[in-house]
C-alpha cells in the first residue's frame, strides 16, 4: 500500500534484507563541511548482484558510491559517522591499504577516462602497478579482460593503437576492462552511460549482465529505465536519506513510500 | 509541477473516460438484452447486436491508447499498474458485451416460440450481474480496493442462482419435454449472466492490484506454486 499522509510505512516495508550481503552500510552519515550529504544510511549490498542507486541530483547517490572505495578521502572537509563493512571488515580502518581496497573495489566513471597510452597498456596499467611483470601473464590477463568487457574482437588487431582513438562506447568498455584486469570483487559504475548513445549504452548494459555471475556491481544512474533494466536491487535516495531499498521489480511496480512513487512516476525530481 | 496539469496525466484521464464509456455501453447492452428477453422484444435484441460494433471499436481504441502510453511514457509504479489494469479490464468489458449479444441472440430465438411459464428469476440475476459490473467500474474509477473485494464476494450469489436455475430448468424439461429447446436456451442465458459476474470479478481483482499492488487472483496457485486455478 502507498503511504497515506497519516501513515508512514515501517522500515521493514521500506528497506529489504538481502540474501547474501557483501557490503554492509551501517548508519552512515557524511558532511561536506557544514553541509550534510548523507543521513544515517543503513542497508546491505548483495553479493554478485547489480544494485542501482537512483534519486534526484544532490540526493547523495554518487557520494554514497564513492564511500565504498573511499574516494571521498580525496575531498577536503569531509567528515563521516557510521561505517561500511566489506566481508565484515571496515573499509575505513586506518590500517587498511587504500590502494588494495581500490583494487578490490574498481570504479568506472561517467566520462570514460582512458590513459593516453595504447589499448594494451591501459588494461595492463593496474597489473604493472601491482607488480605483474611477466609478459605472458600480462598478455593473458589483458586478453581475458578485454574479452570479459566484450571488446576483444573489436581491438585484438590494434592493441598497440592509442586508446584515445576509440569511440566513446569502446573507451567506456576499455575502462571496464581496466577495472576487471586487477580482479576486483566489486565494480562501481557512476553514470557509466550518460555520455553514450543507445547502442553503446546497450553494449554496456549487456556487459553488466554477463559480468553479474562473477562480480558485485553498483551503478548510479539518472535513468530510471536503465535502473529497471539492469539492476536486481534498487535504492532510492532523497536529500541524503535512503527512502526505499528493495528488489528492483518491487520498487518500480509497487513502491511502499509515497516519495518513491512520486519520484519514479515523474511527480517531482 | 502539479501532475494534473501534465500531458501524461491528461492522457491518463482520457483513458479513464474511455474505459468508463465502454463500461456504460456494456451496462446498457446488458439492460437491453434483459428487456429483450423478459418483455419478448426482438427489436431491442437486434439493437444490442448492432451496438456491439461500437463496443468493439472502443476496445480497440483503449488498447491502442494503453500501448501508446506504455511505449511513449514508460510509466512506473501506480501509473504502470493503472494502465496494465485498463488493458486487462478492457478485454473483460468487451467479453461482457459479447455475453449481452449472446443473451440477445437467445432472446430472438425464444421470442419465436410460445412463452413459457415464469419459474426462474432471470431479472434478479440480470440485476445482480449489472450491479456487479457497475460496482466494479466504480471501484476502478475510485481506485477502491475495499469496494472491489466486497463486489467479488457477491459473485457467489450468481453462481448459486445459476445452479438453482439449472435444476429448475432440468426438472421442467423432464416434466414438459416439448419445452426442451426453450429450457436449453434459458440454461445458456443463465450461464451468460453467471459469466458476466465472473468478468466483473476479474475486473475487481485487477482493481485490487491497481490500488494496492496485491495480487489476489488464483490465490491457491500463487500461495503454493501449484494446484488448481480458482478463477
TrEMBL record, chain B:
Pfam families: PhoU (PF01895). Residues 20-106, 124-207 form the PhoU domain. One of its GO terms (cellular component) is cytoplasm. One of its GO terms (biological process) is intracellular phosphate ion homeostasis. The lineage of its organism: Bacteria, Pseudomonadati, Acidobacteriota, Candidatus Polarisedimenticolia, Candidatus Polarisedimenticolales. It is found in: Cytoplasm. Plays a role in the regulation of phosphate uptake. Transmembrane segments: none annotated. Belongs to the PhoU family. Homodimer. Its main location: cytoplasm. This is Phosphate-specific transport system accessory protein PhoU. Keywords: Cytoplasm, Phosphate transport, Transport. It comes from the Bacteria. InterPro entries: PhoU, PhoU-like_sf, PhoU_dom.
Amino acid at each position: 500500500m502507498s503511504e497515506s499522509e497519516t501513515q508512514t510505512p515501517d522500515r521493514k516495508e521500506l528497506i529489504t534484507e538481502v540474501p547474501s550481503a557483501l557490503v554492509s552500510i551501517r548508519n552512515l552519515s557524511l558532511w561536506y563541511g557544514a553541509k550534510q550529504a548523507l543521513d544515517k544510511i543503513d542497508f546491505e549490498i548483495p553479493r554478485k548482484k547489480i544494485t542501482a542507486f537512483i534519486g534526484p541530483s544532490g540526493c547523495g547517490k554518487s557520494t554514497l558510491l564513492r564511500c565504498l572505495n573511499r574516494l571521498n578521502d580525496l575531498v577536503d572537509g569531509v567528515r563521516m559517522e557510521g561505517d561500511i563493512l566489506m566481508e565484515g571488515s571496515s573499509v575505513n580502518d586506518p590500517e587498511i591499504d587504500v590502494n588494495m581496497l581500490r583494487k578490490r573495489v574498481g570504479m568506472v566513471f561517467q566520462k570514460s577516462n582512458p590513459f593516453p597510452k595504447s589499448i594494451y597498456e591501459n588494461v595492463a596499467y593496474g597489473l604493472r602497478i601491482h607488480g605483474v611483470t611477466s609478459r605472458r601473464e600480462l598478455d593473458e590477463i589483458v586478453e581475458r579482460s578485454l574479452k570479459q568487457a566484450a571488446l576483444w574482437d573489436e581491438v585484438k588487431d590494434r592493441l598497440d593503437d592509442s586508446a584515445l582513438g576509440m569511440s566513446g562506447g569502446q573507451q567506456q568498455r576499455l575502462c571496464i576492462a581496466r577495472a576487471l584486469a586487477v580482479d576486483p570483487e566489486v565494480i562501481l559504475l557512476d553514470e557509466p552511460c550518460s555520455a553514450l548513445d543507445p547502442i553503446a549504452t546497450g553494449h554496456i548494459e549487456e556487459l553488466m549482465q554477463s559480468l553479474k555471475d562473477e562480480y558485485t556491481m553498483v551503478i548510479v544512474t539518472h535513468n530510471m529505465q536503465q535502473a529497471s533494466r539492469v539492476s536486481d536491487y534498487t535504492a532510492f535516495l532523497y536529500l541524503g536519506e535512503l527512502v526505499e531499498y528493495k528488489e528492483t521489480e518491487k520498487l518500480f511496480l509497487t513502491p511502499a513510500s509515497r516519495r518513491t512513487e512520486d519520484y519514479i512516476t515523474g511527480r517531482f525530481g | 509541477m502539479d501532475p494534473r496539469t501534465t500531458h501524461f496525466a491528461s492522457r491518463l484521464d482520457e483513458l479513464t473516460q474511455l474505459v468508463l464509456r465502454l463500461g456504460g455501453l456494456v451496462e446498457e447492452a446488458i439492460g437491453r438484452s434483459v428487456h429483450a428477453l423478459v418483455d419478448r422484444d426482438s427489436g431491442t435484441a437486434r439493437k444490442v447486436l448492432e451496438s456491439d460494433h461500437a463496443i468493439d471499436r472502443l476496445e480497440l481504441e483503449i488498447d491502442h491508447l494503453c500501448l501508446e502510453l506504455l511505449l511513449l511514457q514508460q510509466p512506473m509504479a501506480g501509473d504502470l499498474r493503472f494502465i496494465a489494469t485498463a488493458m486487462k479490464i478492457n478485454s473483460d468489458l468487451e467479453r461482457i458485451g459479447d455475453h449481452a449479444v449472446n443473451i440477445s441472440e437467445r432472446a430472438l430465438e425464444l421470442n419465436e416460440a410460445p412463452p413459457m411459464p415464469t419459474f426462474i428469476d432471470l431479472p434478479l440475476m440480470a440485476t445482480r450481474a449489472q450491479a456487479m459490473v457497475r460496482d466494479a467500474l466504480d471501484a476502478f474509477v475510485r481506485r477502491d480496493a475495499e469496494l472491489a473485494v466486497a463486489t467479488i464476494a457477491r459473485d457467489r450469489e450468481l453462481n448459486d442462482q445459476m445452479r438453482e436455475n439449472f435444476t429448475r430448468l432440468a426438472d421442467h424439461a423432464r416434466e414438459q419435454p416439448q419445452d426442451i429447446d426453450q429450457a436449453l436456451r434459458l440454461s445458456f442465458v443463465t450461464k451468460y449472466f453467471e459469466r458476466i459476474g465472473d468478468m466483473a470479478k476479474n475486473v475487481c481483482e485487477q482493481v485490487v492490484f491497481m490500488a494496492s499492488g496485491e495480487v489476489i487472483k488464483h490465490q491457491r496457485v500463487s500461495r503454493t506454486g501449484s494446484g488448481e486455478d480458482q478463477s
